[in-house]
Amino acid sequence: MRRGSEPNIPPDFSLVLGGPLFQLLRRAHLCGDVAELVWRRVIALALITWLPLLVLSIVEAHAWGDSVKVPFLLDVDVHARFLLALPLFIVAELVVHQRMRPVVGTFVKRGLVPDEARGRFDAAIAAAMRLRNSVLAEVLLIAFVYGVGVLFIWRSHAAMDMPTWYGMTVSGKLQPTLAGWWLGCVSLPLVQFILLRWYFRLLIWTRFLWQVSRIELRLVPIHPDRAGGLGFLSTVTYAFAPLLAGQGVLLAGVMANKIFYGGAKLTDFKMELLAMLTMMLFFVLAPLLVFIPRLARTKRVGLAEYGGLAQRYVREFDQKWLRGGAPADEPLVGSADIQSLADLGNTFEIVKGMKPVPFGKHALLQLAAISLAPVAPLVLTMIPLGELLDHFLHVVL
Hints:
The chain is mainly alpha-helical.
Protein backbone atom coordinates (compact mmCIF):
# COMPACT_ATOMS: atom_id res chain seq x y z
CA MET A 1 0.00 0.00 0.00
CA ARG A 2 1.31 3.44 -0.92
CA ARG A 3 2.43 5.69 1.90
CA GLY A 4 -0.18 8.29 2.68
CA SER A 5 -3.12 5.98 1.83
CA GLU A 6 -3.66 5.08 5.49
CA PRO A 7 -4.90 7.74 7.90
CA ASN A 8 -2.04 7.28 10.37
CA ILE A 9 0.72 7.40 7.76
CA PRO A 10 1.70 10.86 6.47
CA PRO A 11 2.52 11.37 2.80
CA ASP A 12 6.16 11.12 1.78
CA PHE A 13 8.21 14.23 2.46
CA SER A 14 11.59 14.88 0.93
CA LEU A 15 13.37 18.10 0.04
CA VAL A 16 15.70 16.14 -2.24
CA LEU A 17 13.70 13.69 -4.38
CA GLY A 18 12.33 16.08 -6.95
CA GLY A 19 12.95 18.89 -9.37
CA PRO A 20 14.31 18.97 -12.94
CA LEU A 21 17.93 18.36 -11.91
CA PHE A 22 16.98 15.32 -9.84
CA GLN A 23 15.05 13.85 -12.79
CA LEU A 24 17.97 14.55 -15.12
CA LEU A 25 20.39 12.78 -12.78
CA ARG A 26 18.06 9.78 -12.56
CA ARG A 27 17.88 9.48 -16.33
CA ALA A 28 21.68 9.67 -16.48
CA HIS A 29 21.89 6.87 -13.88
CA LEU A 30 23.76 9.19 -11.51
CA CYS A 31 21.06 9.08 -8.84
CA GLY A 32 18.67 6.40 -7.61
CA ASP A 33 15.13 6.66 -6.37
CA VAL A 34 16.20 7.63 -2.85
CA ALA A 35 19.24 9.85 -3.56
CA GLU A 36 21.76 7.01 -3.46
CA LEU A 37 24.70 6.62 -5.91
CA VAL A 38 26.39 9.60 -4.26
CA TRP A 39 29.85 8.70 -5.49
CA ARG A 40 28.69 8.56 -9.09
CA ARG A 41 27.48 12.12 -8.83
CA VAL A 42 30.64 13.26 -7.04
CA ILE A 43 32.88 11.73 -9.72
CA ALA A 44 30.72 13.00 -12.59
CA LEU A 45 30.71 16.55 -11.24
CA ALA A 46 34.47 16.45 -10.70
CA LEU A 47 34.87 15.38 -14.34
CA ILE A 48 32.76 18.36 -15.42
CA THR A 49 34.06 21.06 -13.08
CA TRP A 50 37.66 20.20 -12.13
CA LEU A 51 39.21 17.96 -14.78
CA PRO A 52 38.69 20.31 -17.78
CA LEU A 53 40.38 23.08 -15.77
CA LEU A 54 43.40 20.86 -15.21
CA VAL A 55 43.59 19.84 -18.88
CA LEU A 56 43.20 23.39 -20.21
CA SER A 57 45.74 24.73 -17.70
CA ILE A 58 48.27 22.14 -18.87
CA VAL A 59 47.59 23.07 -22.49
CA GLU A 60 48.12 26.74 -21.70
CA ALA A 61 51.22 25.99 -19.55
CA HIS A 62 49.56 27.44 -16.43
CA ALA A 63 49.19 24.23 -14.41
CA TRP A 64 52.52 24.67 -12.60
CA GLY A 65 55.73 26.66 -12.85
CA ASP A 66 56.34 30.41 -12.91
CA SER A 67 54.32 31.42 -15.97
CA VAL A 68 51.71 32.95 -13.65
CA LYS A 69 51.77 33.85 -9.97
CA VAL A 70 49.01 31.39 -9.12
CA PRO A 71 49.30 28.16 -11.15
CA PHE A 72 46.38 25.76 -11.21
CA LEU A 73 47.89 23.03 -9.02
CA LEU A 74 48.73 25.55 -6.29
CA ASP A 75 45.32 27.23 -6.30
CA VAL A 76 43.84 26.16 -2.95
CA ASP A 77 40.48 27.72 -3.69
CA VAL A 78 39.76 25.77 -6.87
CA HIS A 79 40.60 22.39 -5.32
CA ALA A 80 38.67 23.14 -2.13
CA ARG A 81 35.65 24.31 -4.13
CA PHE A 82 35.35 21.44 -6.60
CA LEU A 83 36.95 18.50 -4.76
CA LEU A 84 35.73 19.17 -1.20
CA ALA A 85 32.83 21.61 -1.02
CA LEU A 86 30.90 20.29 -4.03
CA PRO A 87 31.04 16.65 -2.81
CA LEU A 88 29.83 17.81 0.61
CA PHE A 89 26.82 19.49 -1.00
CA ILE A 90 26.04 16.21 -2.77
CA VAL A 91 26.47 14.11 0.38
CA ALA A 92 24.12 16.50 2.19
CA GLU A 93 21.31 15.42 -0.15
CA LEU A 94 21.39 11.82 1.05
CA VAL A 95 21.81 12.77 4.72
CA VAL A 96 18.98 15.31 4.71
CA HIS A 97 16.67 12.93 2.85
CA GLN A 98 17.26 10.09 5.30
CA ARG A 99 16.88 12.28 8.40
CA MET A 100 13.96 14.46 7.35
CA ARG A 101 11.42 11.87 6.16
CA PRO A 102 10.89 10.14 9.53
CA VAL A 103 10.97 13.47 11.37
CA VAL A 104 8.04 14.87 9.38
CA GLY A 105 6.12 11.65 9.99
CA THR A 106 6.66 12.06 13.71
CA PHE A 107 4.13 14.91 13.79
CA VAL A 108 1.41 12.37 13.00
CA LYS A 109 2.81 9.32 14.78
CA ARG A 110 3.02 11.18 18.10
CA GLY A 111 -0.45 12.60 17.76
CA LEU A 112 0.70 16.21 17.58
CA VAL A 113 -1.62 16.91 14.65
CA PRO A 114 -5.32 16.80 15.63
CA ASP A 115 -7.55 14.62 13.46
CA GLU A 116 -9.54 17.63 12.31
CA ALA A 117 -6.33 19.36 11.15
CA ARG A 118 -4.88 16.36 9.30
CA GLY A 119 -6.04 17.74 5.96
CA ARG A 120 -4.14 20.99 6.54
CA PHE A 121 -1.00 19.04 7.47
CA ASP A 122 -1.15 16.90 4.33
CA ALA A 123 -1.86 20.02 2.26
CA ALA A 124 1.29 21.66 3.65
CA ILE A 125 3.30 18.61 2.57
CA ALA A 126 1.75 18.70 -0.89
CA ALA A 127 2.52 22.43 -1.25
CA ALA A 128 6.14 21.82 -0.26
CA MET A 129 6.47 19.03 -2.81
CA ARG A 130 5.05 21.26 -5.57
CA LEU A 131 7.66 23.92 -4.81
CA ARG A 132 10.41 21.30 -4.70
CA ASN A 133 9.39 20.02 -8.14
CA SER A 134 9.03 23.49 -9.67
CA VAL A 135 10.67 23.84 -13.06
CA LEU A 136 10.28 27.60 -12.93
CA ALA A 137 12.18 27.83 -9.64
CA GLU A 138 15.25 26.05 -11.00
CA VAL A 139 15.13 28.05 -14.23
CA LEU A 140 15.12 31.27 -12.19
CA LEU A 141 18.06 30.00 -10.14
CA ILE A 142 20.03 29.33 -13.33
CA ALA A 143 19.14 32.77 -14.67
CA PHE A 144 20.33 34.36 -11.42
CA VAL A 145 23.60 32.43 -11.46
CA TYR A 146 24.46 33.52 -14.99
CA GLY A 147 22.93 36.96 -14.85
CA VAL A 148 24.53 38.00 -11.58
CA GLY A 149 27.22 35.46 -10.75
CA VAL A 150 28.87 35.18 -14.18
CA LEU A 151 28.22 38.52 -15.86
CA PHE A 152 28.71 40.74 -12.82
CA ILE A 153 30.44 39.17 -9.82
CA TRP A 154 32.91 36.76 -11.42
CA ARG A 155 34.70 39.04 -13.89
CA SER A 156 34.51 42.22 -11.80
CA HIS A 157 34.76 41.23 -8.15
CA ALA A 158 35.72 37.59 -7.59
CA ALA A 159 39.06 37.30 -9.40
CA MET A 160 42.40 37.96 -7.70
CA ASP A 161 44.25 41.07 -8.83
CA MET A 162 47.28 39.18 -10.17
CA PRO A 163 48.18 36.84 -13.07
CA THR A 164 46.56 33.46 -12.46
CA TRP A 165 45.89 30.29 -14.39
CA TYR A 166 42.37 31.50 -15.15
CA GLY A 167 43.25 35.01 -16.33
CA MET A 168 44.52 38.47 -15.53
CA THR A 169 42.64 41.50 -14.26
CA VAL A 170 42.95 44.51 -16.56
CA SER A 171 41.31 47.83 -15.65
CA GLY A 172 39.27 46.11 -12.95
CA LYS A 173 37.91 43.42 -15.27
CA LEU A 174 39.10 39.84 -15.68
CA GLN A 175 40.52 38.77 -19.05
CA PRO A 176 40.03 34.99 -18.88
CA THR A 177 42.21 32.25 -20.33
CA LEU A 178 40.58 29.21 -21.95
CA ALA A 179 40.58 27.53 -18.54
CA GLY A 180 39.14 30.73 -17.11
CA TRP A 181 36.25 30.69 -19.55
CA TRP A 182 35.39 27.11 -18.54
CA LEU A 183 35.69 28.11 -14.89
CA GLY A 184 33.37 31.09 -15.29
CA CYS A 185 30.84 29.57 -17.68
CA VAL A 186 30.60 25.98 -16.44
CA SER A 187 32.36 25.11 -13.19
CA LEU A 188 31.49 28.08 -10.98
CA PRO A 189 27.87 28.37 -12.17
CA LEU A 190 27.31 24.69 -11.45
CA VAL A 191 28.53 25.00 -7.87
CA GLN A 192 26.59 28.22 -7.37
CA PHE A 193 23.43 26.66 -8.73
CA ILE A 194 23.70 23.65 -6.42
CA LEU A 195 24.34 25.92 -3.43
CA LEU A 196 21.45 28.26 -4.29
CA ARG A 197 19.26 25.21 -4.80
CA TRP A 198 20.04 24.24 -1.21
CA TYR A 199 19.02 27.68 0.01
CA PHE A 200 15.76 27.30 -1.93
CA ARG A 201 15.17 23.94 -0.26
CA LEU A 202 15.71 25.54 3.14
CA LEU A 203 13.14 28.14 2.18
CA ILE A 204 10.68 25.34 1.35
CA TRP A 205 11.43 23.70 4.72
CA THR A 206 10.81 27.01 6.50
CA ARG A 207 7.51 27.56 4.68
CA PHE A 208 6.34 24.03 5.50
CA LEU A 209 7.13 24.39 9.21
CA TRP A 210 5.46 27.80 9.28
CA GLN A 211 2.28 26.26 7.87
CA VAL A 212 2.47 23.46 10.46
CA SER A 213 2.99 26.01 13.24
CA ARG A 214 -0.35 27.59 12.28
CA ILE A 215 -2.10 24.33 13.19
CA GLU A 216 -3.36 23.97 16.75
CA LEU A 217 -0.81 21.29 17.60
CA ARG A 218 -1.30 19.10 20.66
CA LEU A 219 1.74 20.31 22.53
CA VAL A 220 2.24 19.17 26.13
CA PRO A 221 4.01 21.62 28.46
CA ILE A 222 5.33 18.86 30.74
CA HIS A 223 7.04 16.93 27.92
CA PRO A 224 10.57 15.93 29.06
CA ASP A 225 12.18 17.48 25.96
CA ARG A 226 11.16 20.89 27.40
CA ALA A 227 9.86 21.86 23.97
CA GLY A 228 6.27 20.72 24.31
CA GLY A 229 7.04 17.55 22.34
CA LEU A 230 8.77 19.29 19.40
CA GLY A 231 12.30 18.47 20.53
CA PHE A 232 12.59 15.82 17.81
CA LEU A 233 12.88 18.64 15.24
CA SER A 234 16.37 19.49 16.48
CA THR A 235 17.66 16.24 14.97
CA VAL A 236 17.02 17.65 11.50
CA THR A 237 19.48 20.48 12.03
CA TYR A 238 22.38 18.02 12.27
CA ALA A 239 21.44 16.62 8.87
CA PHE A 240 22.59 19.92 7.37
CA ALA A 241 26.12 19.45 8.78
CA PRO A 242 27.64 18.58 5.34
CA LEU A 243 26.06 21.73 3.90
CA LEU A 244 27.54 23.87 6.68
CA ALA A 245 30.94 22.21 6.29
CA GLY A 246 30.84 22.76 2.52
CA GLN A 247 30.09 26.45 2.97
CA GLY A 248 32.98 26.66 5.41
CA VAL A 249 35.27 25.01 2.83
CA LEU A 250 34.30 27.61 0.23
CA LEU A 251 35.26 30.46 2.55
CA ALA A 252 38.44 28.71 3.70
CA GLY A 253 39.57 28.30 0.09
CA VAL A 254 39.10 31.99 -0.69
CA MET A 255 40.88 32.97 2.53
CA ALA A 256 43.78 30.59 1.84
CA ASN A 257 44.46 32.12 -1.59
CA LYS A 258 44.41 35.64 -0.17
CA ILE A 259 46.75 34.61 2.65
CA PHE A 260 49.20 32.69 0.45
CA TYR A 261 49.22 35.04 -2.55
CA GLY A 262 47.73 38.33 -1.43
CA GLY A 263 49.66 38.91 1.79
CA ALA A 264 46.55 38.82 3.98
CA LYS A 265 46.44 37.48 7.53
CA LEU A 266 43.88 35.21 9.13
CA THR A 267 42.83 37.99 11.50
CA ASP A 268 41.82 40.11 8.49
CA PHE A 269 38.81 37.86 7.93
CA LYS A 270 37.00 38.28 11.24
CA MET A 271 33.99 39.97 9.66
CA GLU A 272 33.80 37.42 6.85
CA LEU A 273 33.88 34.56 9.35
CA LEU A 274 31.24 36.18 11.52
CA ALA A 275 29.01 36.88 8.52
CA MET A 276 29.35 33.32 7.20
CA LEU A 277 28.68 31.80 10.60
CA THR A 278 25.66 34.00 11.26
CA MET A 279 24.20 33.40 7.81
CA MET A 280 24.59 29.62 7.87
CA LEU A 281 23.24 29.18 11.40
CA PHE A 282 20.32 31.40 10.48
CA PHE A 283 19.47 29.39 7.37
CA VAL A 284 19.59 26.07 9.25
CA LEU A 285 17.98 27.10 12.54
CA ALA A 286 15.56 29.82 11.36
CA PRO A 287 12.98 27.25 10.16
CA LEU A 288 12.51 26.12 13.77
CA LEU A 289 11.97 29.69 15.00
CA VAL A 290 8.46 29.67 13.53
CA PHE A 291 7.34 27.67 16.57
CA ILE A 292 8.28 30.42 19.05
CA PRO A 293 4.73 31.83 19.36
CA ARG A 294 3.23 28.35 19.72
CA LEU A 295 5.76 27.29 22.36
CA ALA A 296 5.37 30.57 24.24
CA ARG A 297 1.60 30.10 24.35
CA THR A 298 1.97 26.49 25.49
CA LYS A 299 4.30 27.55 28.30
CA ARG A 300 2.03 30.39 29.35
CA VAL A 301 -1.05 28.17 29.48
CA GLY A 302 0.92 25.40 31.17
CA LEU A 303 2.17 27.69 33.90
CA ALA A 304 -1.38 28.86 34.55
CA GLU A 305 -2.91 25.38 34.56
CA TYR A 306 -0.21 23.56 36.50
CA GLY A 307 0.18 26.57 38.78
CA GLY A 308 -3.51 26.28 39.64
CA LEU A 309 -3.18 22.52 40.18
CA ALA A 310 -0.17 23.08 42.42
CA GLN A 311 -2.04 25.72 44.38
CA ARG A 312 -4.93 23.37 45.11
CA TYR A 313 -2.60 20.54 46.07
CA VAL A 314 -0.35 22.53 48.42
CA ARG A 315 -3.39 24.11 50.08
CA GLU A 316 -4.84 20.68 50.82
CA PHE A 317 -1.40 19.41 51.85
CA ASP A 318 -0.99 22.34 54.22
CA GLN A 319 -4.48 21.84 55.64
CA LYS A 320 -3.91 18.13 56.13
CA TRP A 321 -0.43 18.02 57.63
CA LEU A 322 -0.02 21.41 59.28
CA ARG A 323 -3.55 22.38 60.31
CA GLY A 324 -4.66 19.15 61.90
CA GLY A 325 -6.56 17.70 58.99
CA ALA A 326 -4.73 14.37 58.89
CA PRO A 327 -6.22 11.36 60.75
CA ALA A 328 -4.47 10.63 64.03
CA ASP A 329 -3.47 7.13 62.95
CA GLU A 330 -1.95 8.19 59.58
CA PRO A 331 1.88 8.37 59.82
CA LEU A 332 3.75 11.25 58.15
CA VAL A 333 6.85 9.16 57.50
CA GLY A 334 6.36 7.16 54.32
CA SER A 335 3.26 9.07 53.27
CA ALA A 336 2.65 9.17 49.51
CA ASP A 337 1.63 12.82 49.92
CA ILE A 338 5.29 13.84 50.34
CA GLN A 339 6.35 12.11 47.12
CA SER A 340 3.37 13.52 45.25
CA LEU A 341 4.31 17.01 46.41
CA ALA A 342 7.88 16.49 45.13
CA ASP A 343 6.60 15.09 41.81
CA LEU A 344 4.28 18.05 41.37
CA GLY A 345 7.16 20.44 42.05
CA ASN A 346 9.31 18.67 39.42
CA THR A 347 6.45 18.84 36.93
CA PHE A 348 6.04 22.55 37.47
CA GLU A 349 9.80 23.06 37.01
CA ILE A 350 9.61 21.29 33.64
CA VAL A 351 6.89 23.69 32.51
CA LYS A 352 8.82 26.65 33.88
CA GLY A 353 11.95 25.49 32.05
CA MET A 354 10.32 25.14 28.62
CA LYS A 355 12.57 26.43 25.85
CA PRO A 356 11.35 29.13 23.48
CA VAL A 357 12.72 27.14 20.52
CA PRO A 358 12.84 23.38 19.79
CA PHE A 359 16.63 23.20 19.97
CA GLY A 360 19.27 23.87 22.60
CA LYS A 361 22.54 25.70 22.89
CA HIS A 362 24.45 22.47 22.30
CA ALA A 363 23.02 22.23 18.78
CA LEU A 364 23.97 25.86 18.18
CA LEU A 365 27.56 25.32 19.35
CA GLN A 366 28.01 22.07 17.44
CA LEU A 367 26.74 23.55 14.19
CA ALA A 368 28.97 26.58 14.68
CA ALA A 369 31.97 24.29 15.20
CA ILE A 370 31.13 22.34 12.03
CA SER A 371 30.92 25.58 10.02
CA LEU A 372 34.26 26.85 11.28
CA ALA A 373 36.16 23.53 11.21
CA PRO A 374 37.37 23.95 7.59
CA VAL A 375 39.01 27.25 8.55
CA ALA A 376 40.94 25.71 11.45
CA PRO A 377 43.96 24.56 9.34
CA LEU A 378 44.60 28.20 8.41
CA VAL A 379 45.63 28.81 12.02
CA LEU A 380 48.94 27.24 10.95
CA THR A 381 49.60 30.32 8.79
CA MET A 382 49.95 32.30 12.04
CA ILE A 383 51.32 29.70 14.45
CA PRO A 384 53.83 27.04 13.30
CA LEU A 385 52.65 23.46 13.80
CA GLY A 386 55.44 22.66 16.25
CA GLU A 387 54.64 25.66 18.41
CA LEU A 388 50.93 24.85 18.26
CA LEU A 389 51.63 21.29 19.44
CA ASP A 390 53.82 22.58 22.27
CA HIS A 391 50.99 24.83 23.48
CA PHE A 392 48.52 21.96 23.24
CA LEU A 393 50.73 19.54 25.17
CA HIS A 394 51.40 22.20 27.78
CA VAL A 395 47.65 22.65 28.34
CA VAL A 396 46.89 18.91 28.35
CA LEU A 397 49.84 17.80 30.46
